[in-house]
Amino acid sequence: MKPVPVFTFTCPVKTNSGNKALEHLPVELANLNAVKPIVITGVEAVGGKAVRTLAGAFGDSGMTYALFDGVSPAANLALIENLKITCIENQYDAVIALGGGTIVDVAKVLNMAVSLKTADARQLSPQTPLRKHLNPLVVVPTAEASGLETSKLAHLDRNVFSSEYLAPNLVVIDPRLTRAADGKTIAATGLAALSRALEAHISTDKNPFRDAYSFAAIRFIKENLLAAVNNPGDKKASLAIANAAAMSGCAFSNAENGLLHKLGQVCQDMQQLPAGMVMGMFLPSVCGHYLNKGDNDLAALLHPLAGDDTFVQTPIAKRAEAALDLLDRFLAGLRGALGKDMPQNLKEAGVPGYRMEEILDVLANDRGGPALCAMVKRLWERQPMPF
Amino acid sequence: MKIVTDVQEVHAGRKPLLRAYVGIFLWFTGRAIQAAARVDKQVRKEFDNLPDDFAFSLGCLPQGPWMIIGKEKGAVKYLGGDSRGRHLHVRLAIKHVDAAFLILSFQESTALATARNRLIVDGELPYALAVIRILDIVEVYLLPKLIARLAVKRYPSWWSLGRKLGGRIGVYTRTLLGI
Protein backbone atom coordinates (compact mmCIF):
# COMPACT_ATOMS: atom_id res chain seq x y z
CA MET A 1 0.00 0.00 0.00
CA LYS A 2 1.32 3.43 -0.94
CA PRO A 3 1.73 5.84 1.98
CA VAL A 4 -0.69 8.77 1.84
CA PRO A 5 1.15 12.02 2.64
CA VAL A 6 -1.73 14.11 4.02
CA PHE A 7 -5.16 13.10 5.25
CA THR A 8 -7.52 13.66 8.14
CA PHE A 9 -10.00 11.25 9.64
CA THR A 10 -12.54 11.81 12.40
CA CYS A 11 -14.78 9.18 13.91
CA PRO A 12 -15.94 10.04 17.42
CA VAL A 13 -18.38 7.13 17.51
CA LYS A 14 -17.90 4.37 20.06
CA THR A 15 -19.66 1.16 19.02
CA ASN A 16 -21.22 -1.49 21.23
CA SER A 17 -22.46 -4.33 19.07
CA GLY A 18 -23.75 -7.83 19.66
CA ASN A 19 -25.92 -9.98 21.87
CA LYS A 20 -27.40 -7.95 24.77
CA ALA A 21 -25.25 -4.94 23.86
CA LEU A 22 -28.20 -2.74 24.79
CA GLU A 23 -27.90 -3.81 28.43
CA HIS A 24 -24.57 -1.94 28.62
CA LEU A 25 -26.40 1.34 28.04
CA PRO A 26 -26.81 2.49 31.69
CA VAL A 27 -23.09 1.99 32.36
CA GLU A 28 -22.12 3.66 29.09
CA LEU A 29 -24.36 6.64 29.93
CA ALA A 30 -22.72 6.91 33.34
CA ASN A 31 -19.33 6.96 31.57
CA LEU A 32 -20.63 9.87 29.50
CA ASN A 33 -21.71 11.69 32.70
CA ALA A 34 -25.37 11.40 31.74
CA VAL A 35 -27.93 10.66 34.43
CA LYS A 36 -31.27 11.64 32.92
CA PRO A 37 -31.53 10.99 29.18
CA ILE A 38 -34.43 11.52 26.83
CA VAL A 39 -35.29 8.74 24.38
CA ILE A 40 -36.43 9.97 20.96
CA THR A 41 -38.25 7.48 18.78
CA GLY A 42 -41.26 6.96 16.57
CA VAL A 43 -43.37 4.10 17.77
CA GLU A 44 -44.99 3.70 14.35
CA ALA A 45 -41.61 3.27 12.69
CA VAL A 46 -39.82 1.05 15.19
CA GLY A 47 -42.77 -0.74 16.84
CA GLY A 48 -43.69 -1.14 20.47
CA LYS A 49 -41.44 -4.16 20.93
CA ALA A 50 -38.30 -2.12 20.29
CA VAL A 51 -39.39 0.47 22.88
CA ARG A 52 -40.02 -2.32 25.40
CA THR A 53 -36.62 -3.88 24.66
CA LEU A 54 -34.96 -0.55 25.35
CA ALA A 55 -36.95 -0.14 28.57
CA GLY A 56 -35.81 -3.61 29.62
CA ALA A 57 -32.18 -2.60 29.14
CA PHE A 58 -32.63 0.11 31.78
CA GLY A 59 -34.02 -2.50 34.19
CA ASP A 60 -32.37 -2.52 37.62
CA SER A 61 -30.32 0.57 36.79
CA GLY A 62 -32.34 2.86 39.05
CA MET A 63 -32.39 5.48 36.30
CA THR A 64 -35.23 7.72 35.24
CA TYR A 65 -35.48 8.61 31.58
CA ALA A 66 -37.90 10.52 29.40
CA LEU A 67 -39.58 8.99 26.39
CA PHE A 68 -40.89 10.81 23.34
CA ASP A 69 -42.22 8.31 20.80
CA GLY A 70 -44.02 10.62 18.40
CA VAL A 71 -41.43 11.29 15.70
CA SER A 72 -42.96 11.05 12.22
CA PRO A 73 -41.42 11.55 8.77
CA ALA A 74 -42.98 15.04 8.80
CA ALA A 75 -40.88 16.16 11.81
CA ASN A 76 -39.74 19.76 11.60
CA LEU A 77 -37.93 22.48 13.52
CA ALA A 78 -41.11 23.47 15.39
CA LEU A 79 -41.06 20.02 17.01
CA ILE A 80 -37.41 20.55 17.90
CA GLU A 81 -38.29 23.85 19.60
CA ASN A 82 -41.01 22.20 21.69
CA LEU A 83 -38.76 19.31 22.65
CA LYS A 84 -35.89 21.68 23.43
CA ILE A 85 -38.02 23.59 25.95
CA THR A 86 -39.07 20.34 27.61
CA CYS A 87 -35.46 19.10 27.76
CA ILE A 88 -34.11 22.30 29.29
CA GLU A 89 -36.96 22.62 31.81
CA ASN A 90 -36.58 19.02 32.96
CA GLN A 91 -32.77 18.97 32.74
CA TYR A 92 -32.44 16.01 30.42
CA ASP A 93 -28.70 15.72 29.90
CA ALA A 94 -28.38 13.23 27.04
CA VAL A 95 -30.33 12.16 23.97
CA ILE A 96 -30.90 8.56 22.93
CA ALA A 97 -32.26 7.98 19.42
CA LEU A 98 -34.03 4.65 18.96
CA GLY A 99 -34.53 3.97 15.25
CA GLY A 100 -33.11 5.30 12.03
CA GLY A 101 -33.52 8.04 9.46
CA THR A 102 -35.68 10.96 10.61
CA ILE A 103 -35.68 9.79 14.24
CA VAL A 104 -31.90 10.14 14.42
CA ASP A 105 -31.98 13.43 12.52
CA VAL A 106 -34.46 14.81 15.08
CA ALA A 107 -32.24 13.58 17.92
CA LYS A 108 -29.13 15.18 16.41
CA VAL A 109 -30.77 18.57 15.83
CA LEU A 110 -32.46 18.46 19.25
CA ASN A 111 -29.12 17.73 20.89
CA MET A 112 -27.65 20.68 19.01
CA ALA A 113 -30.48 23.01 20.12
CA VAL A 114 -30.34 21.88 23.77
CA SER A 115 -26.53 21.95 24.00
CA LEU A 116 -26.28 25.39 22.41
CA LYS A 117 -29.32 26.61 24.39
CA THR A 118 -30.60 28.09 21.14
CA ALA A 119 -33.14 30.85 21.81
CA ASP A 120 -35.48 29.58 19.09
CA ALA A 121 -34.75 26.24 17.45
CA ARG A 122 -36.91 27.22 14.48
CA GLN A 123 -34.16 29.64 13.52
CA LEU A 124 -31.55 26.87 13.28
CA SER A 125 -29.99 26.58 9.86
CA PRO A 126 -26.98 24.87 8.27
CA GLN A 127 -25.16 28.18 8.81
CA THR A 128 -25.63 28.07 12.60
CA PRO A 129 -22.09 27.96 14.00
CA LEU A 130 -21.28 24.76 15.84
CA ARG A 131 -17.82 24.85 17.39
CA LYS A 132 -18.06 22.85 20.61
CA HIS A 133 -18.84 19.38 21.81
CA LEU A 134 -22.50 18.76 22.43
CA ASN A 135 -24.28 16.75 25.15
CA PRO A 136 -23.96 12.97 24.88
CA LEU A 137 -25.87 11.47 21.96
CA VAL A 138 -26.50 7.75 21.76
CA VAL A 139 -27.95 6.06 18.68
CA VAL A 140 -29.65 2.67 18.90
CA PRO A 141 -30.34 1.80 15.25
CA THR A 142 -33.14 -0.51 14.22
CA ALA A 143 -33.68 -2.27 10.89
CA GLU A 144 -34.88 1.03 9.41
CA ALA A 145 -31.38 2.56 9.68
CA SER A 146 -30.07 4.45 6.66
CA GLY A 147 -26.37 4.46 7.51
CA LEU A 148 -26.35 8.20 8.09
CA GLU A 149 -27.01 7.64 11.81
CA THR A 150 -23.29 7.51 12.61
CA SER A 151 -22.42 10.30 10.20
CA LYS A 152 -21.89 14.00 10.78
CA LEU A 153 -25.06 14.88 8.81
CA ALA A 154 -28.62 15.59 9.92
CA HIS A 155 -31.40 16.16 7.37
CA LEU A 156 -34.41 17.96 8.77
CA ASP A 157 -37.01 20.24 7.30
CA ARG A 158 -35.08 20.39 3.99
CA ASN A 159 -32.00 21.61 5.89
CA VAL A 160 -28.77 19.63 5.86
CA PHE A 161 -26.80 20.21 9.05
CA SER A 162 -23.21 19.10 8.86
CA SER A 163 -20.64 19.08 11.65
CA GLU A 164 -18.41 16.47 13.21
CA TYR A 165 -20.00 17.45 16.57
CA LEU A 166 -23.36 16.11 15.34
CA ALA A 167 -22.05 12.55 15.15
CA PRO A 168 -23.17 10.38 18.06
CA ASN A 169 -20.84 9.50 20.93
CA LEU A 170 -22.09 5.96 21.08
CA VAL A 171 -23.95 3.58 18.79
CA VAL A 172 -25.47 0.44 20.26
CA ILE A 173 -26.28 -2.30 17.76
CA ASP A 174 -28.33 -5.09 19.28
CA PRO A 175 -29.57 -8.03 17.18
CA ARG A 176 -32.96 -7.94 18.93
CA LEU A 177 -33.60 -4.59 17.22
CA THR A 178 -31.96 -5.06 13.83
CA ARG A 179 -34.24 -7.77 12.46
CA ALA A 180 -36.50 -6.31 9.79
CA ALA A 181 -40.17 -7.01 9.22
CA ASP A 182 -39.53 -7.67 5.52
CA GLY A 183 -36.72 -8.07 3.01
CA LYS A 184 -37.45 -4.71 1.40
CA THR A 185 -36.54 -2.76 4.56
CA ILE A 186 -33.25 -4.52 5.13
CA ALA A 187 -32.43 -4.25 1.40
CA ALA A 188 -32.90 -0.47 1.55
CA THR A 189 -30.59 -0.27 4.58
CA GLY A 190 -27.97 -2.49 2.95
CA LEU A 191 -28.05 -0.73 -0.41
CA ALA A 192 -27.74 2.71 1.19
CA ALA A 193 -24.77 1.52 3.23
CA LEU A 194 -23.21 -0.20 0.21
CA SER A 195 -23.57 2.87 -1.98
CA ARG A 196 -22.06 5.29 0.54
CA ALA A 197 -19.23 2.91 1.47
CA LEU A 198 -18.56 2.26 -2.22
CA GLU A 199 -18.29 5.95 -3.06
CA ALA A 200 -15.99 6.51 -0.08
CA HIS A 201 -13.86 3.50 -1.04
CA ILE A 202 -13.29 4.44 -4.68
CA SER A 203 -12.69 8.12 -3.95
CA THR A 204 -9.42 9.45 -5.39
CA ASP A 205 -8.42 11.29 -2.20
CA LYS A 206 -7.12 8.16 -0.55
CA ASN A 207 -7.46 7.83 3.21
CA PRO A 208 -6.30 4.57 4.82
CA PHE A 209 -8.41 5.00 7.94
CA ARG A 210 -11.56 5.61 5.90
CA ASP A 211 -10.70 2.68 3.64
CA ALA A 212 -10.68 0.36 6.66
CA TYR A 213 -14.28 1.31 7.46
CA SER A 214 -15.54 1.25 3.86
CA PHE A 215 -13.75 -2.05 3.15
CA ALA A 216 -15.39 -3.79 6.11
CA ALA A 217 -18.81 -2.28 5.30
CA ILE A 218 -18.71 -3.47 1.67
CA ARG A 219 -17.49 -6.94 2.69
CA PHE A 220 -20.21 -7.31 5.33
CA ILE A 221 -22.93 -6.31 2.86
CA LYS A 222 -21.63 -8.52 0.07
CA GLU A 223 -21.57 -11.53 2.40
CA ASN A 224 -24.80 -10.96 4.32
CA LEU A 225 -27.34 -8.80 2.49
CA LEU A 226 -28.82 -11.55 0.33
CA ALA A 227 -29.19 -13.85 3.34
CA ALA A 228 -30.85 -11.04 5.32
CA VAL A 229 -33.23 -10.25 2.44
CA ASN A 230 -34.19 -13.89 1.98
CA ASN A 231 -34.71 -14.31 5.70
CA PRO A 232 -35.29 -10.96 7.48
CA GLY A 233 -35.39 -12.82 10.81
CA ASP A 234 -31.79 -13.98 10.38
CA LYS A 235 -30.14 -12.51 13.48
CA LYS A 236 -26.55 -12.88 12.30
CA ALA A 237 -27.10 -11.46 8.82
CA SER A 238 -29.23 -8.51 9.96
CA LEU A 239 -26.69 -7.66 12.68
CA ALA A 240 -23.96 -7.66 10.02
CA ILE A 241 -25.99 -5.24 7.87
CA ALA A 242 -26.58 -2.93 10.84
CA ASN A 243 -22.84 -2.97 11.57
CA ALA A 244 -22.09 -2.26 7.92
CA ALA A 245 -24.53 0.67 7.96
CA ALA A 246 -22.78 2.10 11.03
CA MET A 247 -19.36 1.72 9.41
CA SER A 248 -20.54 3.23 6.13
CA GLY A 249 -21.69 6.33 8.03
CA CYS A 250 -18.23 6.77 9.55
CA ALA A 251 -16.56 6.32 6.14
CA PHE A 252 -19.06 8.65 4.49
CA SER A 253 -18.39 11.39 7.08
CA ASN A 254 -14.80 11.49 5.88
CA ALA A 255 -15.53 11.56 2.16
CA GLU A 256 -17.11 13.97 -0.28
CA ASN A 257 -20.82 13.52 -0.96
CA GLY A 258 -21.00 11.18 -3.93
CA LEU A 259 -23.52 11.10 -6.75
CA LEU A 260 -25.39 8.12 -5.31
CA HIS A 261 -25.85 9.83 -1.96
CA LYS A 262 -27.16 12.98 -3.65
CA LEU A 263 -29.63 11.05 -5.80
CA GLY A 264 -30.88 9.02 -2.85
CA GLN A 265 -31.26 12.03 -0.62
CA VAL A 266 -33.08 14.19 -3.19
CA CYS A 267 -35.56 11.42 -4.03
CA GLN A 268 -36.10 10.72 -0.34
CA ASP A 269 -36.66 14.38 0.53
CA MET A 270 -38.96 15.10 -2.41
CA GLN A 271 -40.79 11.84 -2.92
CA GLN A 272 -40.34 10.01 0.41
CA LEU A 273 -38.73 7.09 -1.41
CA PRO A 274 -36.34 4.93 0.64
CA ALA A 275 -32.91 6.40 -0.17
CA GLY A 276 -31.34 2.93 -0.26
CA MET A 277 -33.71 1.69 -2.94
CA VAL A 278 -33.03 4.75 -5.09
CA MET A 279 -29.29 4.36 -4.63
CA GLY A 280 -29.51 0.68 -5.55
CA MET A 281 -31.51 1.62 -8.64
CA PHE A 282 -28.85 4.09 -9.75
CA LEU A 283 -25.80 1.99 -8.79
CA PRO A 284 -25.21 0.60 -12.32
CA SER A 285 -25.63 4.02 -13.98
CA VAL A 286 -23.39 5.84 -11.51
CA CYS A 287 -20.69 3.17 -11.55
CA GLY A 288 -20.81 3.17 -15.36
CA HIS A 289 -20.37 6.96 -15.21
CA TYR A 290 -17.37 6.61 -12.88
CA LEU A 291 -15.86 3.95 -15.16
CA ASN A 292 -16.20 6.14 -18.25
CA LYS A 293 -14.88 9.19 -16.45
CA GLY A 294 -11.90 7.22 -15.18
CA ASP A 295 -11.18 9.49 -12.21
CA ASN A 296 -12.22 7.04 -9.50
CA ASP A 297 -10.37 4.02 -8.18
CA LEU A 298 -12.99 1.43 -9.14
CA ALA A 299 -10.30 -1.26 -9.17
CA ALA A 300 -10.05 -0.93 -5.37
CA LEU A 301 -13.62 -2.18 -5.15
CA LEU A 302 -12.64 -5.68 -6.22
CA HIS A 303 -10.82 -6.46 -2.98
CA PRO A 304 -13.77 -6.11 -0.57
CA LEU A 305 -16.21 -7.59 -3.09
CA ALA A 306 -14.22 -10.63 -4.22
CA GLY A 307 -11.76 -11.35 -1.44
CA ASP A 308 -7.98 -11.68 -1.30
CA ASP A 309 -7.45 -14.54 -3.77
CA THR A 310 -9.51 -13.16 -6.65
CA PHE A 311 -8.08 -9.69 -6.09
CA VAL A 312 -4.45 -10.78 -6.41
CA GLN A 313 -5.19 -13.15 -9.30
CA THR A 314 -6.91 -10.46 -11.38
CA PRO A 315 -4.60 -8.28 -13.51
CA ILE A 316 -4.59 -4.65 -12.36
CA ALA A 317 -6.06 -3.41 -15.66
CA LYS A 318 -9.06 -5.74 -15.34
CA ARG A 319 -9.91 -5.18 -11.68
CA ALA A 320 -12.40 -2.35 -12.23
CA GLU A 321 -14.44 -4.34 -14.76
CA ALA A 322 -14.28 -7.46 -12.62
CA ALA A 323 -15.54 -5.49 -9.62
CA LEU A 324 -18.45 -4.04 -11.59
CA ASP A 325 -19.30 -7.46 -12.97
CA LEU A 326 -19.47 -8.83 -9.42
CA LEU A 327 -21.57 -5.89 -8.30
CA ASP A 328 -23.94 -6.46 -11.22
CA ARG A 329 -24.40 -10.10 -10.28
CA PHE A 330 -24.93 -9.13 -6.64
CA LEU A 331 -27.68 -6.68 -7.59
CA ALA A 332 -29.26 -9.24 -9.90
CA GLY A 333 -29.39 -11.66 -6.96
CA LEU A 334 -31.16 -9.04 -4.86
CA ARG A 335 -33.62 -8.29 -7.66
CA GLY A 336 -34.34 -12.00 -7.95
CA ALA A 337 -35.03 -12.24 -4.22
CA LEU A 338 -37.14 -9.09 -3.95
CA GLY A 339 -38.98 -9.12 -7.28
CA LYS A 340 -41.28 -6.12 -7.61
CA ASP A 341 -40.28 -4.88 -4.15
CA MET A 342 -37.04 -3.65 -5.70
CA PRO A 343 -38.08 -1.09 -8.33
CA GLN A 344 -35.79 -0.80 -11.32
CA ASN A 345 -36.70 2.69 -12.42
CA LEU A 346 -38.29 5.80 -10.98
CA LYS A 347 -41.64 5.12 -12.61
CA GLU A 348 -41.81 1.70 -10.98
CA ALA A 349 -40.86 3.35 -7.69
CA GLY A 350 -43.97 5.51 -7.97
CA VAL A 351 -42.52 8.88 -9.00
CA PRO A 352 -45.26 10.66 -10.99
CA GLY A 353 -44.22 12.38 -14.20
CA TYR A 354 -45.07 15.85 -12.90
CA ARG A 355 -42.56 15.48 -10.01
CA MET A 356 -39.71 14.69 -12.40
CA GLU A 357 -39.26 18.35 -13.35
CA GLU A 358 -38.95 19.34 -9.69
CA ILE A 359 -36.42 16.59 -9.01
CA LEU A 360 -34.41 17.62 -12.08
CA ASP A 361 -34.51 21.28 -11.00
CA VAL A 362 -33.05 20.44 -7.59
CA LEU A 363 -30.38 18.18 -9.07
CA ALA A 364 -29.45 20.77 -11.71
CA ASN A 365 -28.27 23.12 -8.94
CA ASP A 366 -25.71 20.57 -7.77
CA ARG A 367 -22.04 20.56 -8.80
CA GLY A 368 -22.54 17.26 -10.63
CA GLY A 369 -25.89 18.45 -11.95
CA PRO A 370 -25.59 17.63 -15.68
CA ALA A 371 -24.48 14.06 -15.04
CA LEU A 372 -27.14 13.52 -12.37
CA CYS A 373 -29.92 14.94 -14.55
CA ALA A 374 -28.84 12.80 -17.50
CA MET A 375 -28.93 9.67 -15.35
CA VAL A 376 -32.34 10.50 -13.88
CA LYS A 377 -33.81 11.16 -17.32
CA ARG A 378 -32.34 7.92 -18.64
CA LEU A 379 -33.68 5.90 -15.71
CA TRP A 380 -37.14 7.41 -15.64
CA GLU A 381 -38.80 4.40 -17.17
CA ARG A 382 -36.04 2.29 -18.65
CA GLN A 383 -34.42 -0.73 -17.03
CA PRO A 384 -30.92 -0.14 -15.61
CA MET A 385 -28.23 -1.29 -18.02
CA PRO A 386 -25.41 -3.54 -16.85
CA PHE A 387 -22.18 -1.58 -16.37
CA MET B 1 -46.32 28.31 22.25
CA LYS B 2 -47.55 24.74 22.53
CA ILE B 3 -45.34 22.69 24.80
CA VAL B 4 -44.89 19.02 23.95
CA THR B 5 -46.84 17.02 26.47
CA ASP B 6 -46.18 13.61 24.92
CA VAL B 7 -42.89 13.30 26.78
CA GLN B 8 -43.36 10.88 29.60
CA GLU B 9 -40.89 10.13 32.38
CA VAL B 10 -40.21 6.45 32.87
CA HIS B 11 -38.62 4.91 35.94
CA ALA B 12 -36.45 1.94 35.12
CA GLY B 13 -38.08 -1.30 36.18
CA ARG B 14 -36.56 -3.97 38.33
CA LYS B 15 -35.40 -7.50 37.58
CA PRO B 16 -35.96 -9.30 40.89
CA LEU B 17 -35.58 -12.84 39.57
CA LEU B 18 -32.27 -12.15 37.85
CA ARG B 19 -31.01 -10.26 40.90
CA ALA B 20 -32.02 -13.13 43.15
CA TYR B 21 -30.25 -15.69 40.94
CA VAL B 22 -27.08 -13.60 40.74
CA GLY B 23 -27.21 -12.83 44.47
CA ILE B 24 -27.59 -16.48 45.49
CA PHE B 25 -24.87 -17.54 43.05
CA LEU B 26 -22.43 -14.96 44.39
CA TRP B 27 -23.25 -15.85 48.01
CA PHE B 28 -22.64 -19.54 47.35
CA THR B 29 -19.48 -18.92 45.29
CA GLY B 30 -18.12 -16.61 47.98
CA ARG B 31 -18.49 -19.31 50.62
CA ALA B 32 -17.02 -21.84 48.18
CA ILE B 33 -13.91 -19.70 47.65
CA GLN B 34 -13.46 -19.52 51.41
CA ALA B 35 -13.78 -23.31 51.55
CA ALA B 36 -11.51 -23.93 48.55
CA ALA B 37 -8.76 -21.83 50.15
CA ARG B 38 -8.68 -24.40 52.95
CA VAL B 39 -9.12 -27.51 50.79
CA ASP B 40 -7.12 -26.88 47.62
CA LYS B 41 -3.36 -26.31 47.67
CA GLN B 42 -3.34 -24.29 44.45
CA VAL B 43 -6.01 -21.88 45.69
CA ARG B 44 -4.15 -21.51 48.99
CA LYS B 45 -0.92 -20.79 47.13
CA GLU B 46 -2.62 -18.15 44.99
CA PHE B 47 -3.91 -16.40 48.11
CA ASP B 48 -0.52 -16.75 49.86
CA ASN B 49 1.05 -14.76 47.03
CA LEU B 50 -1.42 -11.92 47.54
CA PRO B 51 -0.99 -9.12 50.15
CA ASP B 52 -2.06 -9.83 53.75
CA ASP B 53 -4.95 -7.40 53.63
CA PHE B 54 -6.00 -8.39 50.09
CA ALA B 55 -9.68 -8.04 49.24
CA PHE B 56 -11.60 -8.27 46.00
CA SER B 57 -15.18 -7.93 44.91
CA LEU B 58 -17.20 -9.46 42.12
CA GLY B 59 -20.64 -8.21 41.22
CA CYS B 60 -22.70 -6.23 38.79
CA LEU B 61 -23.24 -2.57 38.06
CA PRO B 62 -24.86 -0.29 38.94
CA GLN B 63 -26.65 -1.59 42.02
CA GLY B 64 -25.16 -4.99 42.77
CA PRO B 65 -25.39 -7.62 44.12
CA TRP B 66 -21.74 -7.99 45.12
CA MET B 67 -19.53 -10.62 46.68
CA ILE B 68 -16.50 -9.56 48.76
CA ILE B 69 -13.64 -11.93 49.55
CA GLY B 70 -10.71 -10.88 51.68
CA LYS B 71 -7.81 -12.09 53.76
CA GLU B 72 -8.04 -11.53 57.51
CA LYS B 73 -5.15 -12.62 59.74
CA GLY B 74 -3.95 -14.94 56.99
CA ALA B 75 -7.30 -16.68 56.50
CA VAL B 76 -9.48 -16.23 53.43
CA LYS B 77 -13.00 -15.15 54.29
CA TYR B 78 -16.23 -14.42 52.50
CA LEU B 79 -17.09 -10.92 53.72
CA GLY B 80 -20.65 -10.57 52.44
CA GLY B 81 -21.88 -8.18 49.81
CA ASP B 82 -21.20 -4.72 51.27
CA SER B 83 -17.86 -3.20 50.39
CA ARG B 84 -18.43 0.13 52.17
CA GLY B 85 -15.41 1.23 54.19
CA ARG B 86 -13.23 -1.54 52.81
CA HIS B 87 -10.20 -1.07 50.57
CA LEU B 88 -10.51 -3.36 47.56
CA HIS B 89 -7.40 -4.35 45.61
CA VAL B 90 -9.43 -5.70 42.71
CA ARG B 91 -12.99 -4.99 41.66
CA LEU B 92 -14.50 -7.18 38.94
CA ALA B 93 -17.69 -5.48 37.79
CA ILE B 94 -20.15 -6.93 35.30
CA LYS B 95 -21.89 -4.14 33.40
CA HIS B 96 -25.48 -5.28 33.89
CA VAL B 97 -27.46 -7.87 35.81
CA ASP B 98 -28.47 -9.47 32.45
CA ALA B 99 -24.81 -9.83 31.51
CA ALA B 100 -24.12 -11.26 34.98
CA PHE B 101 -26.87 -13.80 34.39
CA LEU B 102 -25.32 -14.80 31.05
CA ILE B 103 -21.97 -15.39 32.74
CA LEU B 104 -23.23 -16.99 35.92
CA SER B 105 -25.66 -19.28 34.11
CA PHE B 106 -22.72 -20.42 31.94
CA GLN B 107 -24.14 -19.20 28.66
CA GLU B 108 -20.92 -17.21 28.31
CA SER B 109 -17.51 -18.10 29.70
CA THR B 110 -15.52 -15.48 31.61
CA ALA B 111 -13.11 -15.19 28.68
CA LEU B 112 -15.95 -14.70 26.17
CA ALA B 113 -17.68 -12.15 28.40
CA THR B 114 -14.42 -10.23 28.69
CA ALA B 115 -14.03 -10.30 24.91
CA ARG B 116 -17.60 -8.99 24.61
CA ASN B 117 -16.75 -6.07 26.86
CA ARG B 118 -19.09 -7.10 29.66
CA LEU B 119 -16.51 -6.93 32.46
CA ILE B 120 -14.73 -3.99 33.99
CA VAL B 121 -11.62 -4.68 36.06
CA ASP B 122 -10.45 -2.07 38.55
CA GLY B 123 -7.08 -2.82 40.12
CA GLU B 124 -3.77 -4.35 39.28
CA LEU B 125 -3.78 -6.88 36.49
CA PRO B 126 -1.64 -9.57 38.22
CA TYR B 127 -4.08 -9.57 41.15
CA ALA B 128 -7.04 -9.74 38.78
CA LEU B 129 -5.51 -12.70 36.95
CA ALA B 130 -4.94 -14.48 40.28
CA VAL B 131 -8.62 -13.92 41.12
CA ILE B 132 -9.70 -15.33 37.74
CA ARG B 133 -7.52 -18.42 38.28
CA ILE B 134 -9.07 -18.92 41.73
CA LEU B 135 -12.60 -18.53 40.34
CA ASP B 136 -11.84 -21.07 37.62
CA ILE B 137 -10.65 -23.65 40.15
CA VAL B 138 -13.69 -23.09 42.37
CA GLU B 139 -16.04 -23.47 39.40
CA VAL B 140 -14.38 -26.78 38.53
CA TYR B 141 -15.07 -27.99 42.07
CA LEU B 142 -18.63 -26.74 42.17
CA LEU B 143 -19.89 -27.71 38.74
CA PRO B 144 -20.20 -30.97 36.84
CA LYS B 145 -17.68 -31.30 34.02
CA LEU B 146 -20.30 -30.69 31.32
CA ILE B 147 -21.18 -27.26 32.72
CA ALA B 148 -17.73 -26.34 34.04
CA ARG B 149 -16.32 -26.70 30.53
CA LEU B 150 -18.61 -23.86 29.45
CA ALA B 151 -17.58 -21.68 32.36
CA VAL B 152 -13.79 -21.97 32.31
CA LYS B 153 -11.39 -21.36 29.46
CA ARG B 154 -9.69 -24.76 29.77
CA TYR B 155 -11.05 -27.63 31.84
CA PRO B 156 -8.23 -29.19 33.95
CA SER B 157 -8.52 -32.74 32.66
CA TRP B 158 -5.04 -33.45 34.10
CA TRP B 159 -6.32 -33.28 37.70
CA SER B 160 -6.30 -36.63 39.49
CA LEU B 161 -9.60 -38.26 40.38
CA GLY B 162 -8.62 -38.00 44.07
CA ARG B 163 -8.14 -34.24 43.83
CA LYS B 164 -11.40 -33.75 41.99
CA LEU B 165 -13.51 -36.02 44.17
CA GLY B 166 -11.87 -35.25 47.50
CA GLY B 167 -11.75 -31.54 46.77
CA ARG B 168 -15.35 -31.49 45.68
CA ILE B 169 -16.56 -33.20 48.87
CA GLY B 170 -14.41 -30.86 50.98
CA VAL B 171 -15.51 -27.70 49.19
CA TYR B 172 -19.20 -28.59 49.23
CA THR B 173 -19.18 -29.64 52.89
CA ARG B 174 -17.36 -26.50 54.03
CA THR B 175 -19.48 -24.27 51.80
CA LEU B 176 -22.75 -25.62 53.14
CA LEU B 177 -21.52 -25.47 56.75
CA GLY B 178 -19.85 -22.10 56.22
CA ILE B 179 -16.50 -23.20 57.65
Give a brief outline of the structure:
The complex is a heterodimer of chains A (387) and B (179). Chain A has 387 residues and is of the alpha/beta class.
Explain what the structure shows.
The complex is a heterodimer of chains A (387) and B (179). The model of chain A has no long low-confidence stretch (mean pLDDT 90). In chain A, strand 6 and strand 7 form a beta hairpin. In chain A, the strands form 2 sheets. Chain A has a 6-stranded parallel beta sheet, with helices on both faces. Chain A has a two-stranded antiparallel sheet with strand order 6-7. Chain A is an alpha/beta fold. Chain A is globular and about 60 Å long. In chain A, helix 4 crosses helix 5 and helix 7 packs parallel to helix 11. With 179 residues, chain B is α+β, with helices and mostly antiparallel strands. Chain B has a single domain, classed as Nonspecific Lipid-transfer Protein, Chain A. Chain B has 7 helices and 6 strands. A 5-stranded mixed beta sheet of chain B has the order 4-3-2-5-6. In chain B, a hairpin with a 5-residue loop joins strand 2 and strand 3. Chain B starts with 7 loop residues before the first strand and ends with a helix. Chains A and B meet through helix 1, helix 3, strand 3 and helix 4 of A and strand 1 and helix 3 of B. Strand 3 of chain A pairs antiparallel with strand 1 of chain B.
List keywords for this structure.
heterodimer; A: about 375 residues; alpha/beta; Rossmann fold; Dehydroquinate synthase-like, alpha domain; 2 domains; 6-stranded parallel beta sheet; two-stranded antiparallel sheet; globular; B: about 180 residues; alpha+beta; Nonspecific Lipid-transfer Protein, Chain A; 6 strands; about 50% helix
